[in-house]
Amino acid sequence: GGRAAHESCQSSIQKNEEFILQLRQENKFLHKQLAEAKAGDEEILRRAFQDRGSEKHAFRDMSARDAMEKLDWMVLSKKKRLNAMKHTTQAYQQRLDELKMGRNLS
């Protein structure tokens, strides 16, 4: 009774210690991978913004994915603005053409 229970507990303790060691090794490996990924993101962002000092600071603490999402949003926003400006310019040009034609008719 008592001896078998003691041996069972010792066996469980040993298995748990081995499992803890395995988890520590996996954790160390994952930390290393994360550090390498962050370093890679920093390098990507450094290269992308090397000639754009003021913008570099806005993206400094972001991952490459977050920076890309923000840049995509900024590009989309600027495209919308550009399209609105093109529309306004076309409307002004059309009005100008109408005025010119009106002047030529009289």
From TrEMBL:
GO terms for cellular component: ciliary basal body; ciliary rootlet; ciliary tip. GO terms for biological process: cilium movement; outer dynein arm assembly. InterPro entries: ODAD3 (IPR033192). It comes from the Eukaryota. PANTHER family: COILED-COIL DOMAIN-CONTAINING PROTEIN 151, OUTER DYNEIN ARM-DOCKING COMPLEX SUBUNIT 3. This is Coiled-coil domain-containing protein 151. The lineage of its organism: Eukaryota, Metazoa, Chordata, Craniata, Vertebrata.
